[in-house]
Structure formats: structure tokens, C-alpha cells
Design goal:
The complex is a heterodimer of chains A (about 250) and B (about 300). With about 250 residues, chain A is an alpha/beta fold. Chain A has one domain: 3-Layer(aba) Sandwich (Rossmann fold). Helix content of chain A is about 35%, strand content about 25%. In chain A, helix 5 runs parallel beside helix 6. Chain A is globular. In chain B, about 75% of the residues lie in helices and about 0% in strands. Chain B is globular. Chain B is built from twelve helices and two strands. In chain B, helix 2 packs across helix 10, helix 6 packs antiparallel against helix 11 and helix 10 packs across helix 11. Chain B is mainly α and about 300 residues long. Chains A and B meet through helix 2, strand 6 and helix 3 of A and helix 6, helix 7 and helix 8 of B.
Chain lengths: ~250, ~300
């Protein structure tokens, strides 16, 4: 569960080039919800995601996760609740480490990394099982370097890595922007599955209005740092794609 | 003549820990750390002072490494907490260490004559050279095993990932700053160990012995990197071994240069040129093959 109370974020405050990225936003995302955020460039979508993740601290307002006030908690301390898939597939994985090493790190997202070897045969079996669900044929390549894979494969694995440890919140920052349609579909279906099966609260930013209409059970539109539309599951299920396009005209 | 190359082998093993240290900063963490010149001398200076006070060599060893680790922590704190460029942070600490070393040593040179050094701990052979080789081989073997284990652990995966993709590690619950400071501490602890070994091997500690030593470690790591790409090696253990092989090859080339009758005054110049060749060769051959590929396209 994520609670944002009266969040405001300014850049270059008090100067001529002041930008109001978010203006007094309050938002509650309940457990298991799949929230999709749309909005034009500069509407504050990414800032909102960064504030949830901890890469940016709001100028005013409170961020809560599962009831804990995390407003000033650095990113690496929030990782026990939050996992993120970046727009750039290269950001979510370490290219010079093997697939298995990447997964090992992800499985310890919420835990301390001790001086013991946890990357053993048992762990390898577990990872192979998970990866085979993807149907990308990567299950026998776990010893390969991450950097040798395609963007689509890396993004799908990044998403899968998010579910290796018990995370509550999954942040997807235009996860399919750099992918071909087929890989994009695989990634989004996987996100949908993680949300439905594991009940992970999911927040996704997208510019693809078709995806926005098809995925998730709640849809909000941001404009100039404010929420101007908020559709509940019922409203969203009856939403026609044409209507969403009209929002942006 | 074989004695000549055995000496080079011995020196390369003594400098091996430093090469491993540079491997950790440069390859694992992707930080250009040149605290090395200072922490190497620091290791030598601390060992000389304690050994002349008749401390047992095996106790002096961890003390030296700890001193080097402290230097590394200084660089790490300056780099991460004050967000100063790693290269500059290293230069600052290295410069400061010169005075620290001079204060510890008391004068510019302390000989270690008639002192029981670490190399006399296992007198199995008649010839000193073999005893020295045995002890240093044992030390480097222990280091190899420990470092390989460290890099394979969960913490080690975190270290490697931090150098590779810091954006990712932050989102995986890793405090990039702390892990970098730990890495710099380990690396400079290893460098100080080299200072400890070399000062006992050559029989004195000198305030200027560290000047330009970083290039030796850098050269070893670069040779190792060229070999790694050429042989397509990904295993951690093999990569560490390659660094030690790189250190050996580097010393061999230097020994060979001297054997050819090059004036020792030119040794640093020869070293710099040699490292330049190692760095430039893969790029030049890359450009060349690129050009050939382009001409084929046309």
C-alpha cells in the first residue's frame, strides 16, 4: 500500500526557471492494485515514481509505505518494499555479471548480503524454473553474461527478478518504451501475472494508450503536476480506447 | 641468468597483492584509485618501524594491512561522502600520506639488516631465494583463495554489481557508498601488504619507494584484461589468476629490458611506454580491423 499526502515537488525553486513538477498531490494505492499513470511529457509522472522510489525527496508532503513514513528514507533502504523496472533495459541488470548472479542479488533485495556463497545448485534450479515460465528459452543460459542478451530479454528478466524476493510494490517506468511489440507484450503480461498471482501493488507509467486501456485496474491522468482524472476499476473496465486518445487532444 | 628471472618472479609475487588491489578498484568497482603510491609506502614504512622494534613479522603483517585499509577508507570517504572525483580523492590522500610516511619513518630510509623478516619463517631450503619464493607463494595462495571466495559470496556479487551498474544496486538494497569504502579499504590493505613484502625482500624501506608504483599494478591488470578478452574468460578465479600472471609478465618485461642493457634511469620511462603499448595495442588493432571491415563493405 502506498499513501502520498499533499506531495509537492519543485525544481529550481525561487529562480526564473522554476518548474512545478508536482503540485499538492494526494494519492492512495491499495494493496494489490494495478495503477496505470498517463500524461503528457513534463506532467510529473516520472517525478511521482521517483518520489515513491526514493531517488527524489518531495519539497513537502508525506510518503508512506504499508503505514511506514518513508519520506526521507534513501532508496536502498526502501528496496525491501519497492522494486523498479526502468525505461532503459540496461539499467535494471548488471551486464558483466551472469544471469544467475543478477538473480542472486535480486533475491536478496530485502536482505543483508552476507559473506556466504548462496549462488548454489539449489538456487540455480529455482531460477531456471522461474525463467522457463517466460518461454524465451533462457533457462539453460543462466551462466551467460546479462550483457549478451537483447533488450527485451533483459527487461523480462528484470521484471522476473523483482519477484525473487517478497516485494510489495512494483514500479514500472515505461517498461516497454525501448522494446519491440512482441517483447513488450511478454513483459506486460508478466507484470499483469505478478500483480494477479503474487498480489504485488503495481504502478506503471506508460505513453502507450492502448496498454493503458488494456492493463491495470485503475487509471489516472496527470497534467501539469496535478491528477486531473482518476478512474476506478468499474469506470476503467468500460473505458473505450478512443476516449483516452481524446484526453490528449 | 635464471637467478635473474627468479628474482623477477619473486618481485612479481611480492607486488601481486597490489595488483589484486588495483584489480578490485579498477575492474570490480570501476574506480580509478591512485592512493596506491601512498598506501604502498605506508605498508613498507609501518613494517620497517615495527620490525626494527623487533615485532614478530606475522603480527606486523595485519598491522600493515590495517594501516593501508585506513588510507583506503580516507579516499573512500572523500570520494563518496564529499562526492569528490575518485582520482582527485586518491591524489589528495596519496599526497598527505607522503608526510605521514615521513613522520612514521623519521628519516627518508630505514635499512632492515640483521632483522628476522617474514622470509625467514620457513627455512626449508639452503638458498635464501627459494625460501623467499616459498613464503611469498604461500601468502599469495592464501590471498587468491580468500579473494576468490569473497567475490563469489552474496556480498561479493554486490561488490561486482556496484561497479557494473550502480543504478541497479541501489534498487537492490545496496548502500553503494559503504560498499565502495569497504572495497577501497580492501584494495589499499592489499597494496600495503605489497609494501610490507617488498621492503623486507629488498632489505629497506624508503620514503620514495612508492613513486609511480601504481603503474606497475595498472600494467598487470591491463595485461590480465587483454588476456581475459582474448581467452574469453568469465570465471572469477581465473580472472584473479590472470592478474597474478599479468604481474609476472610485467616484471619479466622489465627484467628483460634491464638485461638488454637499458640504463636503469630509463626504467620508469620504459615502464610507462610498456603500459602505453598494452593500452594502445587493442585499440589500434580494433581501429585497423574496423577499417578493414569498412573497406570490405565498400
Amino acid at each position: 500500500m502506498i499513501t502520498l499526502q499533499n506531495i509537492s515537488k519543485y525544481f529550481n525553486r525561487g529562480r526564473a526557471n522554476e518548474v512545478i513538477a508536482l503540485h499538492d498531490i494526494s494519492l492512495q494505492v491499495s494493496k494489490g492494485e494495478f495503477l496505470v499513470i498517463v500524461g503528457a511529457n513534463g506532467s510529473g509522472k516520472t517525478t511521482l515514481l521517483n518520489i515513491i522510489e526514493g531517488t527524489e525527496i518531495p519539497n513537502s508532503g508525506i510518503v508512506k509505505m504499508n503505514g511506514h513514513d518513508v519520506t526521507h528514507l534513501p532508496e536502498f533502504k526502501r528496496s525491501k518494499w519497492v522494486a523498479r523496472v526502468f525505461q532503459n533495459p540496461n539499467n535494471g541488470t548488471a551486464p558483466d555479471l551472469t544471469i544467475l548472479d543478477n538473480f542472486r542479488l535480486a533475491s536478496l533485495r530485502a536482505h543483508k548480503k552476507y559473506l556466504t556463497i548462496g549462488n548454489n545448485e539449489k538456487f540455480k534450479k529455482k531460477v531456471q524454473e522461474r525463467i522457463s515460465d517466460l518461454g524465451m528459452g533462457l533457462e539453460n543460459k543462466t551462466g551467460q553474461l546479462m550483457g549478451n542478451l537483447s533488450g527485451g530479454q533483459r527487461q523480462a528478466l528484470t521484471l522476473l527478478m523483482c519477484a525473487m524476493d517478497d516485494v510489495d510494490i512494483l514500479l514500472l517506468d515505461e517498461p516497454t518504451a525501448a522494446l519491440d511489440p512482441k517483447s513488450a507484450a511478454i513483459v506486460l503480461k508478466l507484470a499483469d501475472k505478478l500483480n494477479k498471482i503474487h498480489g504485488i501493488t503495481t504502478v506503471m507509467i506508460t505513453h502507450n494508450l492502448k496498454d493503458a486501456q488494456q492493463y491495470g485496474n485503475r487509471l489516472i491522468q496527470l497534467q501539469e503536476g496535478k491528477i486531473i482524472r482518476d478512474l476506478n476499476p468499474e469506470q476503467k473496465s468500460t473505458l473505450v480506447l478512443q476516449e483516452v486518445f481524446e484526453w490528449f487532444e | 641468468m635464471s637467478q635473474f628471472y627468479l628474482t623477477a618472479l619473486q618481485l612479481s609475487i611480492c607486488l601481486g597483492p597490489m595488483a589484486l588491489g588495483i584489480f578490485i578498484t579498477m575492474k570490480v568497482f570501476n574506480i580509478p584509485d591512485i592512493t596506491t603510491d601512498g598506501s604502498y609506502t605506508l605498508g613498507a614504512v609501518v613494517s620497517a618501524i615495527l620490525l626494527t622494534q623487533h615485532w614478530p613479522p606475522l603480527i606486523v603483517l595485519p598491522v600493515c594491512m590495517l594501516a593501508g585499509a585506513l588510507a583506503g577508507i580516507c579516499t573512500g570517504l572523500i570520494h563518496t561522502k564529499l562526492q569528490i572525483n575518485a582520482l582527485l580523492a586518491g591524489i589528495l590522500v596519496m599526497t598527505g600520506l607522503y608526510s605521514v610516511n615521513l613522520i612514521i619513518l623519521g628519516r627518508s630510509n630505514v635499512p632492515l639488516i640483521n632483522i628476522s623478516t617474514i622470509f625467514y619463517l620457513l627455512p626449508l631450503f639452503h638458498a635464501d631465494l627459494y625460501n623467499q619464493l616459498l613464503v611469498s607463494l604461500l601468502i599469495i595462495l592464501v590471498l587468491f583463495i580468500l579473494l576468490r571466495y569473497l567475490l563469489l559470496t552474496d556480498f561479493g556479487i554486490g561488490m561486482r554489481a556496484t561497479g557494473n551498474n550502480p543504478i541497479m544496486t541501489k534498487s537492490m538494497g545496496i548502500n553503494n557508498d559503504s560498499i565502495k569504502i569497504i572495497g577501497l579499504a580492501i584494495a589499499n590493505g592489499l597494496t600495503a601488504l605489497s609494501g610490507y613484502l617488498v621492503s623486507q625482500y629488498q632489505g629497506f624501506a624508503d620514503i620514495n619507494m612508492g613513486i609511480g608504483i601504481v603503474i606497475t599494478g595498472l600494467g598487470s591488470v591491463l595485461i590480465a584484461d587483454a588476456l581475459r578478452i582474448w581467452l574469453n574468460i568469465t570465471q572469477i578465479g581465473m580472472q584473479i589468476l590472470l592478474v597474478l600472471i599479468g604481474s609476472f609478465l610485467f616484471q619479466m618485461v622489465l627484467a628483460f629490458t634491464l638485461a638488454m642493457g637499458v640504463d636503469p634511469n630509463f626504467l620508469k620511462l620504459a615502464t610507462a611506454l610498456f603500459v602505453l603499448i598494452i593500452v594502445a595495442l587493442p585499440r589500434m588493432s580494433g581501429q585497423l580491423s574496423g577499417r578493414i571491415a569498412n573497406s570490405h563493405k565498400i
